[in-house]
Amino acid sequence: MNKAELIAAMAENAGLTKVDAHKALDAFIATTKKELKAGKKVTLIGFGTFSVAERKARTGLNPRTKKSIKIPAKKVAKFKAGKGMEL
Questions:
Q1: What's the pTM?
Q2: For residue 18, what pLDDT is reported?
Q3: How far is it, in rounded angstroms, from Cα 68 to Cα 17?
Q4: Is residue 86 within 8 Å of residue 78, measured between CB atoms?
Q5: How far is CA 18 from CA 3, 8, 11, 50, 56, in A?
Q6: 44, 61, 70, 87: which sits with the fewest CB atoms below 10 Å from its CB?
């Protein structure tokens, strides 16, 4: 499912217009990014938790040249599904 399909499904399930569903999804994404950048978690009971993980610097391998390269440390978003997401 891509973003457009998600927006259409949200609109249908919530009885919204696609424009309103698009605004709601964009607001959710923007708010989640803002909170993660601030180092906070976003927890949705029954769905899951978005959080920030720190990856350490490491040495990698360039597949084209086979030379080792240094990969810098960075922060990445991670998602852990809640119990309500069991299929």
A1: 0.80
A2: 97
A3: 51
A4: no
A5: 12, 6, 5, 25, 41
A6: 87
Q: Which fold has domain 41-87?
A: HU Protein; Chain A (4.10.520)
pLDDT at 86: 84
* pLDDT tens-digit map of 63-75: 999 999 999 999 9
Q: Output the CA torsion 43→78→30→40 (10° steps).
A: 60
How would you write 14-76 as a 3-class SS string?
Answer: HCCCHHHHHHHHHHHHHHHHHHHHCCCCEEECCCEEEEEEEECCEEEECCCCCCEEEECCEEE
The neighbour count for residue 33, using CB atoms within 10 Å, is 13
